[in-house]
Design goal:
mainly beta, six-stranded antiparallel beta sheet, 8 strands, 6% helix, 1 helix, 125 residues, elongated
Length: 125
């Protein structure tokens, strides 16, 4: 008997549109909502998903937030919801820097470092 099974990680993007003013870069942008998960597949057919996490990424500067699971489930069901700042937790990578980058509103300088002020012109990020 030959049995093909595997465990992999997956990502699902949702068609969710909400215009926002980014709290990081100060520009207008849109929330892109997605879910990551782990899946068990038998004969290349996904059968069981677990370890689901919902995330929001801004279209302006790419900052990633973890989304409240209940709001994420509502978006996955196709419900009309509004994502508020208290539903979001900013994701920090292992080195302590935020994922994505910062862009200065005044001079346009871009950096992936966690500066409070622009190294080129001194404007607060």
């Amino acid at each position: 008997m030959f049995l093909v099974m595997g465990i992999t990680d997956g990502r699902k993007d949702f068609s969710f549109n909400q215009l926002v003013t980014c709290t990081i870069c100060g520009k207008y942008g849109r929330f892109n909502v997605f879910m990551t998960y782990t899946v068990l597949s038998f004969f290349f057919i996904p059968t069981f998903k677990w370890n689901k996490h919902y995330y929001v990424q801004t279209s302006c500067c790419g900052t990633v937030y973890e989304l409240d699971p209940e709001i994420g489930k509502a978006i996955a069901r196709g419900e009309e919801v509004e994502v508020k700042q208290n539903h979001l937790t900013r994701v920090i990578n292992g080195r302590g820097f935020t994922t994505g980058y910062k862009k200065c509103r005044l001079c346009g300088y871009e950096t992936t470092e966690d500066f409070d002020f622009c190294p080129k012109c001194g404007t607060r990020f």
